[in-house]
Write a structure and sequence with these properties.
Elements: E1 2-8, E2 11-17, E3 23-26, E4 28-33, H1 42-47, E5 53-57, H2 58-62, H3 65-74, H4 76-80, E6 85-89, H5 92-98, H6 105-114, E7 119-121, H7 133-153, E8 158-160, H8 169-180, E9 187-189, H9 193-197, H10 201-214, E10 221-223, H11 229-237, E11 242-245, H12 247-253, E12 256-259, E13 262-265, H13 284-289, H14 292-320, H15 323-330, H16 335-343, H17 348-352, E14 363-364, H18 374-386, E15 393-398, H19 410-418, E16 421-427, E17 430-433, E18 445-446, H20 453-470, E19 474-477, H21 492-505, H22 507-513, E20 518-522, E21 529-534, E22 537-542, E23 549-551, H23 553-562, E24 569-572, H24 577-581, E25 586-587, E26 591-594, E27 603-607, E28 613-619, H25 623-628, E29 633-640
Parallel strand pairs: 4-5, 4-11, 5-6, 7-8, 9-10, 10-11, 14-18, 15-16, 15-19, 24-27
Antiparallel strand pairs: 1-2, 2-3, 12-13, 16-17, 20-21, 21-22, 22-23, 24-26, 25-29, 27-28, 28-29
Helix pairs in contact: 6-7, 7-8, 8-10, 10-16, 11-14, 11-15, 12-14, 21-22, 22-23
């Protein structure tokens, strides 16, 4: 069972529970244990490093008589002395390394069951990057047949269903979709080791993202064979939950040390600038002179500490909503990783569907690639379809770095509005109308004062396109070109209140929310909008943190009356209605329908089967996930109709 606890877009912190009741938090690494070598004993992995899971090879155990006998007599957990979750591979990777393996899918599934593994693996076909599309397609059919066979045999053992497809994105997505319909428990993305070994990280992005499109979000995704600390942030960003590493031990045997910026040979290093528990107290010269077995163990432990430290950092950045920043920083460690970061732009639309409508922290710009984040696309898309200019003339101002822009430009904006002009700032996000400048992500973003040419050029181009699209009759640049004798009257707060509502809820919903006599309640300290009262009804409250609205029950009723279903709705079954109406959260297993356009953390209206509003809250899952998840919160309810 897999439950999402926290998230940042596709990246997830989850709780995974096996049928035996063992649990672990994701994202997590499965260290690979070679039962013949055992560089770092399994018990040390659990007690010393805190790993709650590992992976070992059932093919090796089965083909080593003494290990086979011991595993079947004692069980895998007792044999390895590991109380956590054990996953076993099937021999597929050995077929990639050494050619065909001499066993059947049925034999290896039965053997994995007999030794008590928690998560077994199908004997899938490893699709090589150099294979033709026809060869790949045929092998996928074999993998799918074997997976269905394993599903019929698995019993209480959980099962890996490996998505294959070489470098062909359409085959990857199709394989994943067909795999998602089967009774499997974990979705590994297979066949990616050669891509990483050859530094083909851009293609790795294609493989993972195309697979993610088809996989069931109710199951954790395992990047099979990926465990180097330099790629963990990128893979987590794309929604991978599990990783595994044999390299921590393989590299150690070759005197190679893993770091977040690469792998370095001991003989080539100039200093041992590492303070992990394994390296602490050692010098580079002392490490080089160490006896081979002890040195291998120490380097393997160092490599494990590098992985655990990076995973801890990934989890922290997910919780803080800043994983994009960490991934961008890590991808600048190598040009091939930078290719991968840039390739993600092609999946900006897919990632936007999962990107939260706002975050608690600010957006930090790390370079031109930051513009590829989904938040940029969403802003420009909504600006183009939901913004209504209050006048037919525009006054364009340069980015002054002060946020929100209405503070440093207070006099200039007033002058523009009195003359009948709509103030617009040409910012790194593109055009920023003054009415939106306090809203996420505009006010909650930090850019360098010395901007790169690429971003400046893009900002100018997008702004000019926007001005043309909006059909402004007149455009001036700078306050000095605005007439001084303007006498137009305006209500800046009302302009802002309506513009934010259109951006957040759409034009039709805003007309319903702002009908009749509108009163704005503002903060005495800051003067910012706090509440919107329409015809005596409290319909909206504006959040100070992100400048966006929370929806009140009266506002929800108006939207339901004005906008046909399923707009902004999450419909729940009858049994759930009384609980949600009392203010309890709505869970995925009780949702019967929802608006397909809902985005993460967006304001939603929970309704019953008669389309009667029973609560308001924020979406914790996106529609595709809501339909698939068997457990977990779908809507974090703020208030129910019984509370009114």
């Amino acid at each position: 069972m897999f439950e999402i606890i926290r998230r940042d877009g596709l990246a997830r912190i989850g709780r995974f529970t096996t049928t035996s009741g063992r649990t672990m938090e994701t994202p997590a690494l499965f260290p690979v244990i070679n039962p013949k070598i055992n560089t770092v004993p399994a018990r040390e992995l659990y007690d010393k490093f805190g790993f709650k899971s590992l992976i070992t090879n059932s093919y090796i155990i089965k083909n080593t008589p003494d290990l086979k006998e011991k595993a079947q007599e004692l069980g895998l957990h007792e044999m390895l002395d590991f109380p956590g979750i054990i996953m076993t591979d099937s021999g597929t990777f050995q077929s990639h390394m050494y050619g065909e393996v001499e066993l059947t899918n049925e034999e290896i599934i039965e053997f994995q069951k007999s030794i008590g593994t928690d998560i077994g693996t199908v004997l899938d076909i490893f699709t090589e990057p150099y294979w033709t599309k026809e060869q790949t397609a045929k092998s996928i059919e074999v993998t799918l047949e074997r997976t269905q066979q394993a599903c019929d045999m698995k019993g209480d053992m959980m099962l890996n269903g490996v998505a294959q497809g070489s470098i062909y994105t359409d085959l990857r997505e199709d394989c994943a979709r067909r795999m998602a319909t089967m009774d499997i428990d974990v979705h590994p993305v297979g066949g990616i080791v050669p891509l990483m070994e050859q530094y083909r990280y851009a293609e790795l992005v294609d493989v993972v993202m195309s697979s993610k499109k088809g996989l069931n979000p109710n199951r954790p995704v395992h990047a099979f064979g990926a465990g180097h600390p330099m790629v963990l942030a990128l893979l987590a960003l794309m929604g991978c939950d599990f990783f595994d590493s044999a390299s921590y031990a393989k590299f150690a045997r070759d005197d190679r040390m893993m770091f977040v910026d690469g792998t370095f040979r001991l003989q080539d290093m100039e200093s041992l600038d590492c303070n992990c528990p394994a390296c602490r107290g050692h010098t580079l010269e002392g490490l080089r002179k160490m006896e081979k077995k002890a040195k291998t163990k120490l380097i393997a432990e160092h490599n494990l500490y590098q992985i655990t430290q990076e995973l801890a950092l990934v989890r922290r950045y997910i919780k803080e909503g800043r994983l994009w920043e960490l991934a961008e920083i890590r991808c600048r460690a190598h040009p091939a990783l930078l290719n991968a970061l840039r390739r993600l732009k092609e999946y900006q639309g897919v990632m936007e569907m999962y990107d939260p409508i706002s975050r608690e922290g600010a957006i930090f710009y790390t370079g031109p690639e930051s513009r590829n984040r989904p938040v940029f696309k969403r802003y420009l898309d909504r600006l183009g379809t939901r913004y209504v200019p209050p006048t037919r003339k525009a006054a364009v101002f340069p980015d002054c770095q002060g946020k929100p822009y209405s503070r440093p430009y207070a006099e200039e904006f007033d002058k523009a509005r009195r003359a009948g002009y709509t103030p617009i700032v040409m910012a790194p996000f593109g055009p920023v109308p003054a009415e939106l400048d306090e809203m996420y992500p505009l006010a909650q973003s930090l850019f360098p004062e010395i901007m790169d040419d690429e971003t400046e050029t893009a900002s100018e181009g997008i702004t000019y396109q926007f001005l043309q699209m909006m059909g402004f009759e007149s455009v001036v640049f700078g306050a000095e070109n605005i007439p001084d004798d303007g006498t137009e009257e305006f209500d800046a707060n009302l302009l802002r209140a309506k513009a934010v509502s259109r951006y957040q809820f759409g034009i039709e919903a805003t007309e319903a929310l702002f009908r009749g006599e509108v009163q704005l309640v503002t903060s005495r300290k800051t003067g910012k909008i706090r509440n919107v009262i329409s015809d005596g009804e409290h319909v909206l409250s504006m959040r100070a943190g992100d400048g966006m609205y929370t929806l009140k029950m009266e506002g929800a009723k108006r939207i339901v009356e004005a906008c046909p279903a399923p707009f902004m709705r999450v419909q729940v079954m009858d049994d759930s209605v009384p609980f949600v109406a009392e203010g309890r959260n709505a869970f995925a297993q009780f949702v019967t329908d929802c608006d397909p356009e809902i985005r993460l953390m967006e304001e939603v209206i929970v309704v019953d089967r008669n389309d009667t509003p029973i609560a308001t809250g924020r979406a914790f899952l996106v529609p595709f996930e809501i339909k698939q998840m068997k457990k977990g919160m779908a809507v974090k309810v703020r208030s129910g109709s019984s509370d009114e």
